[in-house]
Design a protein that fits this description.
By secondary structure, this protein is an alpha/beta fold. The chain is 32% helix and 20% strand. A nine-stranded mixed β-sheet has the order 1-2-3-5-4-6-7-8-9, with helices on both faces. α4 packs parallel to α5. The chain is globular, with a radius of gyration of 17 Å. The N and C termini lie far apart (36 Å).
């Protein structure tokens, strides 16, 4: 029996480049939500790892594929045996304002939409996925904020977490959205800070990394988070690369995240 009242998935006859598209009615959103999914070509794949890939402000489920060609990159990397086959799941953030922050709101829970509904829909509708599939989560900018927070908070689900050019404090959203930031204010401090989330759940942390461009307006926040984690002796990987808060950076450096996840898979299979 389905966990969703309504759900639609694209017809394979009309799909292109191994991309599928899903729309479900979510109890957490209280409306419909969209998901794009890259499924590696191959008839016999089962229990493939699932990578949730979160977008930033202004975007939606299609933007990772149509701005970075991540589905084409994944197909090439898999065919060349650079990485293990993985399913890439790209949901919308719920489409509140300029960006929901992937946070609980008064009327909709955009965090549980990601942590529960998107995973359940993938397992239900994608035959190559299952309840035993390894889970990973990543994202850029606001999506990095969502991925780092949700990945750590639900660390019992996720084997690895990564953020690109991440917002690290809710207050940084102010520079990107026109909505009053008070509408995103949370009841608990860990929902407004990646560092506070990590501190709260530090006894059960998944492996995690984050990176940022040296010309990025969010660089100082990422450096501060790195320093805070070092001071607390919390294991993590932090990298800086040339580039700014831009699609060319994310198109190039998403490979670091995918390789990181692949290394985790390989270490678990030894």
């Amino acid at each position: 029996m389905s966990k969703f009242r309504t759900l639609e998935i694209s017809d394979p006859r009309f799909e292109a480049n191994n991309l599928r598209h899903i729309t479900i009615k979510s109890k957490n959103l209280k409306h419909r939500g969209d998901i794009s999914v890259f499924v590696p070509p191959g008839e016999n794949y089962k229990n493939l790892p699932i990578v949730l890939l979160l977008h930033g402000v202004y975007g939606s489920h299609w933007i990772w594929s149509q701005k970075t060609g991540i589905h084409l990159q994944m197909k090439s990397w898999i065919e060349n045996k650079q990485v293990s086959p993985m399913i890439i799941v790209m949901p919308s953030d719920g489409l509140w304002g300029d960006g929901s922050g992937y946070l609980p709101h008064s009327n909709s829970d955009y965090e549980k939409w990601i942590a529960e509904d998107v995973i359940d829909a993938t397992v239900e509708l994608i035959p190559q996925a299952s309840k035993t599939s390894k889970l990973f989560i990543s994202g850029l900018s606001m999506g990095g904020f969502g991925a780092l927070r949700i990945g750590v908070k639900y660390g019992h689900k996720f084997s690895g977490v990564s953020g690109l050019s991440s917002i690290t404090q809710l207050s940084e959203m102010k520079a990107f959205i026109e909505e009053d930031l008070s509408l995103l204010k949370q009841n608990t401090i860990e929902n407004e800070s990646v560092f506070e989330t990590i501190i709260k759940y530090k006894k059960h942390l998944p492996k995690f990394r984050f990176d940022c461009g040296i010309s990025d307006s969010l660089l100082e926040g990422n450096r501060k988070l790195h320093k805070q984690l070092e001071e607390q002796n919390i294991p993590h990987i932090y990298k800086e690369y040339p580039g700014g808060h831009e699609w060319s950076y994310w198109e190039e450096h998403i490979k670091d995240t995918i390789y990181f996840f692949d290394n985790i898979l390989n270490s678990e299979n030894i």
